[in-house]
Amino acid sequence: MDISDLRALAEAPAPTPPQDSAPGEIFIYGVIGGWDHDSVFSSSFLQQLRQLEQQYDRINVRINSPGGSLYDGLAIYNALASSTKEVHTYIDGIAFSMAGIIAMAGKTVHAAKASMLMFHNASGIAIGNAEDFRTTAEELDKWDRIIAEGVATKTGKPVEEVISLFFDYKDHFFTADEALSEGLVDVLDAHAATEIPAGIENMSFSNRLAYYTRREQKTTGGFISAIKNLFAGSGSPPAAQQGQTPTPGKKIFSQADLSTRIQAMAEEHQKVLFEVEAEALAAKQQATRWQALAEEYGSQPGAFPTAPAKRNGDRFDEAGPDQEAPQLYWEAQDVARFQRKS
Question: pLDDT by residue (tens digit) across 99-116?
């Protein structure tokens, strides 16, 4: 072998991994862009998807999720919709909100018996003046159109019709049969759906997220356990690196992926800590304000002014005895007594 042979060998493309005849599987079980180790983040999802695309011609995406972040969800939707592989999405339990949009990315969409699909408008939080709220509303209108386009692509309906049908500021729930009739699902599967809580269609969006988060956290035991479980899921070096075929559905994490997921969990737990501290500070400020009210109107029953008052901004106006100031007064008394004890 001479130098030209060595150069040709070095410049040759890497061999393509053999394609497995069985489908690869990837799971969206949990909140999208959430705060738990079972939450689904676009960064780690896309890494797993790219690994599966190298190994399999068909990829099954199993979904049981109440939805979550538009930012993570749209990246996942676009990656699936643009994949050159045969992508099948499966609604194993629920596919609500952003999870429902992701389900529409499948070239073939399956739904389990008794599963449920749900669409609704994008939502967000705004703080500031009237112009800030108007700007946020305009942005939400744009988000609504983007997610409606995903449904329109699946059903063949015009975007404006999809918006009027499914994004009219109400929650739209579909059983598997209803979703099939609307052209949202292609295949009904015989297996039963994965654990859907009773009355979930009547829960608020925040309660749905809370239910799935609590369910995931039952086995985690907090942040440290979440990390332990994450490493436990990674197992030994990926089978693909050992020349073996990966087990379908097994979580395979690279070192970079583990680092990314752990960092995301740490940031989310820190965010929760900040929120708790902010709520504690707000409660302390409210207690101080109530104590000031108690001191202003005396510390003994009957010391309240003869002409009771009601709140008007930060001052008091005269009002009848049935107004709310007496209640504020007695609440202030309770807070003052509590603070003296503590």
Answer: 999 999 999 999 999 899
